[in-house]
Amino acid sequence: MRQPTLYLLVGYPGSGKTxxxxxxxxxxxxxxxxADHERQVMxxxxxHSPTESEQLYTTLNTRTADILSRGEDVVFDTxxxxxSDRNKLRQITTQAxxxxxxxxxxxxxxxxxxxATADHHAEGNGYDNTMTPETFDRIVxxxxxxxxxxxxxxxxxxxxxxxxxxxxxDLALRVDTGTPTSDEVATA
Length: 188
Fold this sequence. Notes:
Layout: E1 5-10, H1 17-28, E2 31-34, H2 35-43, H3 50-69, E3 74-77, H4 83-95, E4 99-106, H5 109-116, H6 119-124, H7 133-142, E5 153-156, H8 162-169, H9 182-187
Parallel strand pairs: 1-3, 1-4, 2-3, 4-5
Helix pairs in contact: 2-3, 3-4
């Protein structure tokens, strides 16, 4: 049996994490767990409070563990800014007998800020409100860059295409059998 993969993302808001996640999902059939979307679904008008975030990530971590345990790949689309959060997912991955690929999506901070604070970025992420420059700066100031021990795969967030992702991740592409994955069935 093939070892399932968990794709984790790190990068500034606006760096291209969701575009990367969608591309991996389309190329491989990996379940796309999109935290921004799930937060909107769970809470309607999200506040991003610590309690809300704890509920959200407890749910998403459990879902990730379940999917990996079934032998399926997952791309977890959120900003894993903190080493402690990445380590928690590393434990989940180990318990599921899966491997982890940490993707560090990078662009110039100025470009990320421009993208993240633009109205179209909010629309693309399914939110009703646009990120403020102050929120962007706060998130960026707390980002803990991946360590060499985490073996991050560096991705240029200005080059995200199926060809680029396939080459950078050395992906084994999904063979379309016409049978949806269990996550596609659950979200249909």
